[in-house]
Amino acid sequence: MTGIVGRMREAFRGDQRVDADALAARLDAVRRFLDAADGQLPDTRLVPAHTLVERAGTRLALSRDHTVVALAGSTGSGKSSLFNALARLDLSPVGVRRPTTGVAHACVWGPLDGANQLLDWIGVLPRHRFVRESVLDGDDERDLHGLVLLDLPDFDSVQWSHRLEVDRLLGLVDLVVWVVDPQKYADRVIHTSYLREFHRHRDVTLVVLNQADRLPPAELPRVLADLRRLLDADGLEGVPLLATAAVDPSGIVELRGALERTVAERQAALRRLAGDVADVVAGLDELVAAEAPAAGSAADTVAGLDRALAGASGVPAVADAVEAAYRHRAAGATGWPLVRGWRRLRPDPLRRLHLPGPTADAEPGDPAESLVAATSVPDPTAAQRSALGLAVRAVADRAGAGLPAPWAGAVSAAARSRLGDLPDALDRAVAGTDLGMDRRPAWWRIVGGLQWLVTVAAVAGLGWLAFGYALRALGLPPLEPPRVGVVPLPTVLLLGGLLAGLLLAALTRPVVRWAARRARSRAERRLVAAVGAVGREYVVTPADAVLARYGRARQALRDAAGV
Fold first, then answer.
1. Relative orientation angle of helices 442-473 and 315-334, to the nearest 10 degrees
2. Measured between alpha carbons, how far is 513 from 522 in angstroms, rounded to an integer?
3. Is the pLDDT assigned to residue 206 strictly greater than 90?
4. Whole-number Å distance between alpha carbons of 533 and 211
5. Distance between CA 122 and CA 104 in Å, rounded?
């Protein structure tokens, strides 16, 4: 945003009119900036912007037909005398005792009713409000109708409350006339604490060297030249500098003419607010100096986050359990029927982890789905927890890379904001993942059926042989069984069934191992995807939300600057 303040300075030059609609658009941009930045940046950095939005909204809602001009100066500069001279009435107390002016006095040219709300907002007490309206004046004061002239307390008063009141009022008025005198025009306080701070409000600033009648005619140009040098050093190049003498009506002609032109233009309030916008934008510029990173710019670190989440959530242990469970269940479905019952006595590896998989009747989004019982997956080790912390930090650092420090801190805080909920979310993700183990492959049934067939054949052969042995033992005539070659059929059935069962088991075993590895890989991919989705929801998405806010805040501030 290099050069924004400079371009704003050109846009708000005093010889150009400030468009009310354009100013309203810039103020709305400041509001949008606050909407994006609130909660992300320190409140202390946003106070000036909040103050501006509130003050500008109130000022624009009040009378635009009035121009509020303040006479500000140090003790003894003759502010009150100048105030009375412009009003042509003795309204503000003048005296030798300092400080004389303790509260602000207001003089309104024109009807007071139209300015009362404005003065209520500014905080001038009703007993200190005066109307510059008299039938004796005729049209003499008509050119100043709409002027609200304030005589402020001395900003260098020994009473601290006076300075606080001056600081408050200077933030509310439309135009400031700084009154200095020949003795203290170079005073460090007025230059460092006030005039220098008004360098972005040059269009609504006017400086008068009062009591010029006390200087010899030959000295006046030299004093004015020195004062101009000081003003230029304060950043107030081009600010009108006038010489006045309150004791001589002719000594305020130039000042009165400047006020008449200001009142006629009806631009002071808009220029003041435009300067306030420039001031606020300049103060916030460093907070949005960098280009806004795109949401998801940390995608290359998400893979590392997924690996860390997988380790912390026990994905390797679950994948091992899936492979073991596949072998266990495959052996129970395709093994020799006579030993299947013995295998069923061994616990299922997935059941030991309380991972039966999702229920068939659970619907996505069902509240019951979020109440999955906790698994018995092993807790992460210290190394896995450390790896997860480093991965989250890497995502936060990459997402906030290049951002100003407050925003980078906000990104990091957002990435870590839900870490406390992460373990339960990972456990639910693992427990709710379809591991692909709820369906029995068709080839299991085919092999199981063949095992039953050869087992039945072996049992039939054994029974046949036993029946023949029983007949012989009882002395009954033996049965002559059919033969296959020279081998009796019962023997063929028995031995063939046993050998076929063993052969079928031997042929099935490598297929089971291959299929178990595939089941493991499939389950591992699904588990990594599930815990990765949790990582994106709990880590990446909050960080991306802050990045999106940063982008909106940066664009809003550019709009506020009129760039």
1. 40
2. 14
3. yes
4. 76
5. 10
Residue 470 counted as domain residue: no
Beta bridge partners of 106: 129, 150
Please tell me the predicted confidence (pLDDT) of residue 398: 82
Q: Do residues 106 and 119 lie in contact, with contact meaning Cβ atoms separated by under 8 Å?
A: yes
Higher pLDDT, 389 or 239: 239
Confidence of residue 456 (pLDDT cuts 50, 70, 90): confident
Per DSSP, what are the bridge partners of residue 243?
A: 209
| Percentages of the chain per state (helix, strand, coil), in multiples of 5 | 60, 5, 30
Exposure class string for 366-393: b at 16+ Cβ within 10 A, else e: eeeeeebeebebeebeeebeebbeebbe
Residue 46 — pLDDT band, cuts 50, 70, 90?
very high
**Token pair for residue 251?**
């000594």
Claim to verify: residue 382 and residue 312 sit in the same structural domain: yes
Phi-psi region of 124 (alpha: psi -120 to 50; beta: other; left: phi over 0): beta
Identify whether the C-beta of residue 115 lies closer than 8 Å to the C-beta of residue 148: yes
Q: How much is the mean pLDDT over the chain?
A: 82
Domain boundary among 289, 323, 349: 289
Contact 429, 534 (CB under 8 A): yes
CA-to-CA separations, 435 to 195, 520, 528, in angstroms, rounded: 73, 9, 11
Question: Greater confidence, 352 or 233?
Answer: 233
168 and 202 share a domain? yes
- Angstrom distance (rounded) from CA 97 to CA 76: 9
- Cα 232 from Cα 244, distance rounded (Å): 20
Q: Is 546 exposed, middle or buried (0-12, 13-18, 19+ CB in 10 A)?
A: buried
CA distances from residue 544 to 396, 537, 538 in whole angstroms, order as listed: 10, 10, 11
Using alpha carbons only, what angle is made at residue 494 by residues 493 and 500, rounded to the nearest 5 degrees?
80
Q: Which domain holds residue 126?
A: 65-265
Q: Which of 232, 307, 542 is nearest to 418 (CA)?
A: 542
Place of tokens 């690996």: 307
CA–CA gap between residue 252 and residue 59 (Å, rounded): 29
Out of 102-106, 203-207, 480-484, pick the least confident. 480-484
Each residue's pLDDT tens digit, 358-379: 443 444 444 444 444 466 676 7
DSSP 8-state class, residue 286? G
Count structural domains, the chain: 3
- Verify that 30 and 152 share a domain, yes or no: no
